[in-house]
Amino acid sequence: MLYPDLETFARRGAPALAPGPVALIFAEDAAALDATLRHHRNHGFAPVLLGAPDLAVAEDLSALPRAALDARDPDAVARAVSRVARALPGTWLYWGYNAEFLFYPFAETRSAAEMLAFHAQERREAMLTYVIDLYAGDLAAHPDAVALDDAWLDRSGYYAEARLDPAGRPRDRQLDIYGGLRWRFEEHVPPARRRIDRIALFRARRGVSLRADHTLSDEEMNTYACPWHHSLTAAVMSFRAAKALRFNPDSRAAIDTFRWRNSARFDWTSRQLLDLGFIEPGQWF
Q1: Using CA atoms, how far apart are residues 277 and 271, in angstroms rounded to an integer?
Q2: Which residues of 265-285 are buried (b: 16+ CB within 10 A; e: fewer)?
Q3: Strands in the chain per DSSP E
Q4: Count of other CB atoms within 10 angstroms of residue 77
Q5: Low-confidence stretches of the chain (pLDDT beneath 70)
Q6: Single pTM value for the model
Q7: Can you give the pLDDT at residue 232?
C-alpha cells in the first residue's frame, strides 16, 4: 500500500508491522531495489519502502507498504527513522538504502528475529554495523558500479579512531571507523561522510532518535559492545559509495576501476565476513 507521506504511514501503517523486526529501505534510485527488498524479507524483516512514489518494484513486492519520501535528503532519512521509531516502541528496526544488504553472523541458517532475540537477552538495545563498500569489478560493463554477480570488496585498509565527547575525552566503547572506497578516494568524499560505522539496528524507544551522523541520541546505544564481553556486530554491504563516486563527474573521470591489490570477490556469505573480521558473533554460537 502506498501512503502519501511519512506521517500518514507512521500513524496508519506502522502499527500493523509490530512486533517486527522491520526494515526501512530508503530508495534513492532504482538500483538493485528489488534485490534489496527481497534480501531483507528473506531474512525475516517486514520491509517498508520509502522513496519516490513512482519507483517501480516487481509484482511480488507490490503489496509491501511504502511511503513517499525524498530519500536523497539525509535529514529527511534521519527524521523518518526517528518518526517510525516513535510509532513502534519495542520493535527492532533496521534502516538502510537500496543496493545495501544487511549481513549478520550465521545469516544463512538463522533469522534476524533469532539473532535479535539473543542480542536482547544480552541486554543490548542496538547493534553496531560496519558499512562495507561493494563495487562492480568491471565498470565498463556496469557503469553505475552496481553488479550483484560481479561484486567486490576491500579485504583490508580499515582503521578506527577514538570517538571524543565535547570535552575531548574518549567516549566509552565508541569508535569512529574508516576504510573502503571512502578511504581510498577520500579526496572525492566530504569529511563528514567518510566514516563507515552506522547504528543500523536498534530497538525503537520513545525519546530515542537517529542523528545525522548515523548515531542515536542515547550514547549507550552507540557502543560496540557491552561492558563485560564482546557483543554481536553486523555489516551493511553497500554499493552506495561506489554509485556516488560514479555519479559525480569529477570522481567518475578520475576513476577507471575500483579494484586494487586488496580487492576480493564477495561471495554473499556471512562466513566470508566472519573470516575477514567484519562481523563479530560475540557469545552467539
Answers
A1: 10
A2: ebebebebbbebebbbbbebe
A3: 2-3, 22-27, 46-51, 66-68, 92-97, 100-103, 126-136, 151-154, 159-164, 170-178, 197-203, 234-238, 263-265
A4: 23
A5: none
A6: 0.96
A7: 96
